[in-house]
């Protein structure tokens, strides 16, 4: 695999959407390189797990393909003041041996990518998911993060997709249609059962003569 920034961003989105059963964050929504209207942060990938149990909230993945890029990242305003940045959980993703765990800022995880494109989580809340929720959060969750920027990014991403209410209506109508069809199937099966019983009754009656 060509470990370019673009390819790793795509890989980061796929990883964010990986369910917890496959040792992923279990995000139901994930996007890459999307702006927000609050600050200048453009996360390489960000995803949301909206459930109340462990690991809920946004997870950010910053992709680095060079050592210089990684070192320069520390100078960004939302890195110097982590509460300005997005993500309750945060990771760097980089080729193997580009970043060490000792290089990481507090509460950041590390994802390494092999030349074949295989992912290895070296540390982070997913790596430590066998911990109790309070232990996981105490070690990896950022106590403060920029909720306004996250909401802005998510809203702008939805706006690019189209009218969310229109899609919501389409989904609701599809659900209602499926429910109606399910009821019709149940009725048809019952009608078939009745007809089968009538058929067998007629056969038995004819055989009796």
From TrEMBL:
Coiled coil: 171-205
Coiled coil recorded as keyword: yes
Keywords: Coiled coil
Entry annotated with the keyword Coiled coil: yes
Name of the protein in its database record: Adenylosuccinate synthase
Species: Chromobacterium fluminis
């Amino acid at each position: 695999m060509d470990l370019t920034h673009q390819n790793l961003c795509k890989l980061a989105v796929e990883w964010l959407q990986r369910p917890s059963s496959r040792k992923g964050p279990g995000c139901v929504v994930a996007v890459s390189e999307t702006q927000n209207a609050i600050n200048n942060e453009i996360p390489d990938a960000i995803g949301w797990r909206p459930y109340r149990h462990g690991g809920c909230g946004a997870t950010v993945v910053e992709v680095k393909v060079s050592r210089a890029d990684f070192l320069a990242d520390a100078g960004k305003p939302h890195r110097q003041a982590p509460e300005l940045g997005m993500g309750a959980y945060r990771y760097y993703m980089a080729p193997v041996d580009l970043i060490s765990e000792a290089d990481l800022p507090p509460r950041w995880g590390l994802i390494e990518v092999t030349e074949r494109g295989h992912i290895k989580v070296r540390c982070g809340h997913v790596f430590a998911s066998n911990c109790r929720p309070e232990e996981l959060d105490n070690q990896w969750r950022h106590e403060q993060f920029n909720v306004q920027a996250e909401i802005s990014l998510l809203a702008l991403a939805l706006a690019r997709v189209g009218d969310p209410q229109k899609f919501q209506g389409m989904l609701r109508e599809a659900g209602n249609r499926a429910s109606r069809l399910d009821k019709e199937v149940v009725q048809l099966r019952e009608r078939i059962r009745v007809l089968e019983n009538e058929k067998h009754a007629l056969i038995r009656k004819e055989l009796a003569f």
